[in-house]
Design a protein that fits this description.
- The protein is an alpha/beta fold.
- The chain folds into 2 domains: 6-137, HUPs (Rossmann fold); 148-273, HUPs (Rossmann fold), CATH 3.40.50.620.
- 43% of the residues lie in helices and 21% in strands.
- The protein has 11 helices and 10 strands.
- The protein has helices spanning 17-33, 45-53, 59-76, 92-100, 120-128, 159-173, 185-200, 216-226, 242-247, 250-255, 270-273; strands at 6-12, 36-43, 80-86, 102-108, 134-137, 148-153, 176-181, 205-209, 231-235, 263-266.
- It has a 10-stranded mixed sheet, with helices on both faces.
- Strand 7, helix 7 and strand 8 (205-209) form a beta-alpha-beta unit.
- Helix 6 packs parallel to helix 7 (185-200).
- The longest helix has 18 residues, at 59-76.
Length: 279
């Protein structure tokens, strides 16, 4: 395991449209953050079947990856590296991220298209086991970076991670953070922790309290959609059972929202957070 995280954004790709969208959004972020961008293709059984059907060799994957890298370098002026590795998407993506010490992963999710099938439950497994925050991207394009970040407050879990990541993203991207919460003493205390830090560090923010609802996740999505926010930031819960995820949880509903707003998922893991530079 890396002793510290490095200025690297990792983007897995199966060469589909949604992965290309994730790459371009990640490249824009790398340009803002002055990070390296690493493109990864996992050579799994789906890749091997595709290569066999198309009568292609492994070298064709490297050529495709290099073409993508060259295009991103020309467009964004960033450093891009490529990697193709045998394995499966469930474990290889996160093991590569850990080996690189990547600070962020951009994950494109889609239906059963392309040579791999990175759909809902598959993506959730990658997200909840990730050593770094994951920004989930769907087909919808956002070409101007993240200018308005929605941060729903649902509990006191991981308030410090939320605070520092939201502050970092806002200051690096010159964005505004929009806090959204429901009434309650615990949540109010958490919100106060965030707002105090934002004020001390000159982070532009707003704070909204909404009425309690049986479907807070839909409230979050509706609020983000109606206000044209371009990123939702949530804390995930890696301890949730897979049964809960597969039946549909708060996390899952937001991550795969119908408005296709990108979602930044942060696992509240203190050990990893202590390796992040204190911004």
């Amino acid at each position: 395991m890396k002793d510290k995280l490095n200025n690297i954004i990792l983007v897995p790709t199966d060469f589909s449209e949604v992965c290309n969208n994730a790459m371009n959004q990640a490249a824009e972020a790398a340009q803002f953050f002055k990070y390296e961008l690493h493109l990864l293709h996992v050579i799994d059984k789906n890749t091997n079947a595709y290569l066999k059907d198309e009568n292609l060799g492994i070298d064709s994957l490297y050529k495709r990856l290099q073409k993508l890298a060259d295009d991103l370098i020309a467009k964004y002026g960033i450093e891009v590296k490529i990697k193709a590795e045998d394995g499966n998407i469930f474990t290889t993506i996160n093991s590569v991220a850990q080996h690189l010490g990547a600070k962020l992963i951009y994950l494109g999710t889609h239906g059963k298209v392309g040579m791999q099938k990175l759909t809902g439950s598959f993506a959730l497994r990658i997200i909840t086991e990730s050593p770094a925050p994951v920004i989930v991207v769907q087909k919808r394009k956002f070409n101007k970076g993240f200018q308005n970040i929605l941060l729903p407050i649902t509990s006191d879990a991981g308030p410090w991670e939320k605070t520092l990541w939201a502050s970092f993203m806002a200051k690096q991207l010159n964005a505004k953070v929009h806090l959204m919460s429901i009434p309650g003493k615990t949540i109010e205390k958490t919100t106060n922790t965030l707002t105090k830090y934002f004020e001390e560090h000159d982070v532009d923010y707003t704070s909204t309290i909404v009425d309690k609802s049986n479907n807070f996740s839909q409230q979050v999505i509706d609020h983000a959609t109606s206000n044209n926010y371009d990123l939702i930031m949530i804390m995930t819960n890696p301890d949730n059972s897979w049964t809960k995820y597969l039946l549909g949880s708060y996390d899952e509903e937001i991550i795969f929202n119908g408005s296709q707003i990108p979602v930044m998922c942060i696992n509240p893991r203190k050990y990893n957070w202590e390796k992040i530079t204190q911004y």
